[in-house]
TrEMBL record:
SUPFAM superfamilies: LDH C-terminal domain-like, NAD(P)-binding Rossmann-fold domains. This is Malate dehydrogenase. Residues 28-170 form the Lactate/malate dehydrogenase N-terminal domain. Homodimer. Keywords: NAD, Oxidoreductase, Tricarboxylic acid cycle. The keyword NAD applies. GO terms for molecular function: L-malate dehydrogenase (NAD+) activity. It comes from Cymbomonas tetramitiformis. Residues 172-335 form the Lactate/malate dehydrogenase C-terminal domain. It catalyses: (S)-malate + NAD(+) = oxaloacetate + NADH + H(+). Belongs to the LDH/MDH superfamily. MDH type 1 family. The lineage of its organism: Eukaryota, Viridiplantae, Chlorophyta, Pyramimonadophyceae, Pyramimonadales. Its EC number is 1.1.1.37. CDD domains: MDH_glyoxysomal_mitochondrial. InterPro entries: Lactate/malate_DH_C, Lactate/malate_DH_N, Lactate_DH/Glyco_Ohase_4_C, Malate_DH_AS, Malate_DH_type1, NAD(P)-bd_dom_sf.
Length: 339
């Protein structure tokens, strides 16, 4: 089986050390929205992950076919398909990790916030299921707008008395993957060596790549910093426009979510020094949720890292993003309260 290196941020591993990664536990993982554009390739990548013992595929339609298809991969995990509300309990029971890409994607001309009307309710309902059937699971939320769906999930868990801020994570890994790729491409560096932390949220100007903290250390001109920052902020839209009505990023998202999922499982498995950027409950700024690098461990987020030293340019973006991100967070909280 292929293991993602889950080459999270500051950690550097050699191929040799990766190949000796020992699997001490097998985890049940559910993908909610498993028959979708992200759900299918993500489920395939999770089926290839040696840390997964059971993969539960849940959707409102088509999961039996996807499960039958993936069930023929000769990797050790068992795959099961579940359809509709009545089968949510069976899909979720016993899960250590629940990954949620359920919901509608953007079409050209839409913002992620335009998806709120449909996706907020989907995430709320699915998280009510998580609270009931696997309250201890780590939840990775992909459904947009992430800046609002993460607060919705947290409010659902608070209402159910199951909220653990260490276990609710908005998936922003695609922003990191894109940043790493764009910087490596521009500077002619080896893709696997480059790491750019991305902070803030996951929509337009709330996405803030900290190019000054790129490793290995890279010199950028002011023009390069501006062009890269704006491209990373608009990268989702770049894909939406190229797909011209057929949806948004699915394959790169599946890749990024599989990396995030694997990092969570490696943390659960007791591996040291696992870091990923994620949109989580945070006291790094005055906003209640914020994405920075997080240290992952046996209980989920072990430590929300700070943002480190940022440049004046980055500080300017940080001030600009705060009102929009605050608004999106508040919108999610109000929705969950039924307001
Ligand atoms: P898609 O339409 O191809 O798939 C969505 C799937 O969700 C479908 O199979 C649908 O049946 C399912 N679904 C709908 N309601 C459901 C429910 N109540 N329970 C279970 N499943 C349900 O869409 P996609 O391209 O896979 O995108 C999914 C979501 O991910 C969108 O909201 C998109 O904006 C978001 N997304 C987020 C990121 C990120 O970086 N966080 C990146 C790309 C896409
Ligand atoms: C992305 O960044 O690709 C996703 O959030 C999907 C989108 O709507 O852009």
């Amino acid at each position: 089986p292929v293991s993602f290196s889950a080459r999270a941020s500051t950690r550097r591993q050699t191929a040799a050390s990766r190949s000796t990664m020992s699997v001490t536990a097998g985890f049940k993982v559910a993908v909610l929205g498993a028959a979708g554009g992200i759900g299918q390739p993500l489920s395939m990548l999770m089926k290839m992950n040696p840390l997964v013992s059971e993969l539960a595929l849940y959707d409102i339609a088509n999961t039996p076919g996807v499960a039958a298809d993936l069930g023929h991969l000769n990797t050790p995990s068992k795959v099961t398909g579940y359809v509709g509300d009545d089968e949510l309990e069976a899909a979720l029971t016993g899960c250590a990790l629940v990954i949620i890409p359920a919901g509608v994607p953007r079409k050209p001309g839409m913002t992620r916030d335009d998806l709120f009307a449909i996706n907020a309710g989907i995430v709320k309902t699915l998280c009510e299921g998580v609270a009931k059937y696997c309250p201890d699971a780590i939840v990775n939320i992909i459904s947009n707008p992430v800046n609002s769906t993460v607060p919705i999930a947290a409010e659902v868990f608070k209402a159910a008395g199951t909220f653990d801020p260490a276990k609710v994570m908005g998936v922003t890994t695609l922003d990191v993957v894109r940043s790493d790729a764009f910087v490596a491409e521009l500077k002619g560096l080896d893709m696997k060596d480059v790491d750019v932390p991305v902070i803030g949220g996951h929509a337009g100007i709330t996405i803030l790549p900290l190019l000054s903290q790129t490793t290995p250390s890279v010199e950028f001109s002011d023009e390069e910093v501006e062009a890269l920052t704006v491209r990373i902020q608009n990268a989702g839209t770049e894909v939406v426009e190229a797909k011209a009505g057929a949806g948004s990023a699915t394959l790169s998202m599946a890749y990024a979510a599989a990396r995030m999922g694997e990092s969570c499982l490696r943390g659960l498995n007791g591996e040291a020094d696992i870091y990923e950027c994620s949109f989580v409950a945070s006291s790094v700024t005055d906003l209640p949720y914020f994405s920075t690098k997080c240290k992952l461990g046996p209980n989920g987020v072990e430590e929300v890292m700070g943002m480190g030293e940022i440049t004046e340019y980055e500080a300017g973006w940080l001030e600009k993003l705060k009102p929009e991100l605050t608004g999106s967070i508040e919108k999610g909280i109000k929705f969950a309260a039924g307001e």
